[in-house]
Amino acid sequence: MVSSSIDPTRPVTMADVETAMIDLLTRDDSVMAQAARHHLGSGGGRARAKLALQSAHALNLSFATTRAISGACELLHNASLVHDDLQDGDTVRRGATAVWKKFGSNTAICLGDLMVSAAYAAIASAPVDHLTEMIVHMHQRVSDVIGGQHADLESDCTTIADYNDVARMKSGPLLGLPVELCLIAANRQADVSAAMTASDAIAIAYQTTDDISDAERDIAAGGLNFLALVPGEMASRAHAARQHAADFARSAIAIAKNLPDGSGNGLVALAGKFVPVLEIEEAA
Amino acid sequence: MVSSSIDPTRPVTMADVETAMIDLLTRDDSVMAQAARHHLGSGGGRARAKLALQSAHALNLSFATTRAISGACELLHNASLVHDDLQDGDTVRRGATAVWKKFGSNTAICLGDLMVSAAYAAIASAPVDHLTEMIVHMHQRVSDVIGGQHADLESDCTTIADYNDVARMKSGPLLGLPVELCLIAANRQADVSAAMTASDAIAIAYQTTDDISDAERDIAAGGLNFLALVPGEMASRAHAARQHAADFARSAIAIAKNLPDGSGNGLVALAGKFVPVLEIEEAA
Lengths: 284, 284
Prior knowledge:
The structure is a homodimer.
Chain A lengths: L13 H12 L5 H11 L5 H12 L4 H26 L3 E2 L2 E2 L1 H5 L1 H20 L6 H24 L5 H26 L6 H30 L12 H23 L8 H8 L3 H8 L1
Antiparallel strand pairs in A: 1-2
Helix pairs in contact in A: 1-4, 1-6, 2-6, 3-4, 3-8, 4-6, 4-7, 4-8, 7-8, 8-9, 9-10, 10-11
């Protein structure tokens, strides 16, 4: 993955991360490679790669380690999207046709598998002392997120506590992983559990907020949605969801801002998105 | 993965490998854990773990490294079985109900993903100098096998050369990987390509032989089968398949027996299974 033309003193850019991901997925012009290019080419916020770039910069990690962590986390996230779309029957992803819809279910299964494998090849390119620990932690968070996706698909949550568990497991692991891997690479293992707690809280804030727009559809389909678990008119349920999200977001901010050397500032910014809505609403 | 009660001077047993795999897949009594136990509990020859144990012993690798390589290769193989059964619609595996049929497609997708991830956590537990190289090689072989599975599903091979390519890619990578990882761990990188060539040849011998029993069904369904590519009566096509298999098996034996310190003896024994059939036939 390391090109000799790269100046290792310049910061890693998102273009470096994209190149690293594509290099690990496309060795030819096969249908698999086309599917990989279609999926990654459809955009996406690359929130996890950005979190890794921010934390790695704060912790002064090397070019190769920064790129390795960013690429690995984004590959895992995109693997989960390719397989989740197939599992959920979602036909559109980021405005483009979902991989399974465009290339078939078999290609979607194969591409997701390849992306999981590529994530580990990416992380293995990090020239660090703690590689084994990073990989073991990565598998732990992958297990969490797969458990969350499975629980979401099979779920019959009836309490907010159960809902929080599924939301936390479904989105928390891959939001926290970029920061957690940077902390391990920087030999700050003692701070990993705080990053996990913060990202789990952001996941709940994110999922609860996301549920507001999907409420009518989810409730009609009997799917998991925060608004299905609270009483009242839809407007007051949406208000409760925003309040729930803001509570967890504030808790995430309180934890993430204490991560070493500002390495949680990306998480703080992410959590901040779920606070102002309520502050504005309460001020009105 | 390392238990303090293990005597690291005794040889790794298959029970050690089973425990390592289960530990990486089951953290609770969830449906996912049940599915993992169901699949691994249904048996299987564990041919790849056995190849790793043989090569690792020949190359004098440590207990932890031997267990890591055996577990990683067997996890990748079982991931491929769980996803292949879903893709091919096969309802029975080793006499038991296939995971997707018993637990649903969503669970099968999630379990296969978890097994790929667990394979990398397993290999990361190898206390060796060449871990990055081993992981990068593992991803290369996983890419090969996913490409092979995809080509098999989408295939319209019309020549024996194309057939050989698909057969080689579909089964060769995970047959060779146990030996190849042992060679890298033992700092015998120069011998890896010979192990790859030998395992690719065994894969062709295996697939061609396997095609004989599936010929009627595959040909009726328009599926990929060696016997569909040769002319004549079914009996003479089967003879041609046995000859094709034996040619590749002999070539595999010639290469594998020259691997260092007898590290290819497991491959030699495996290839040997595809030779006697023809020798007996010719002697008759």
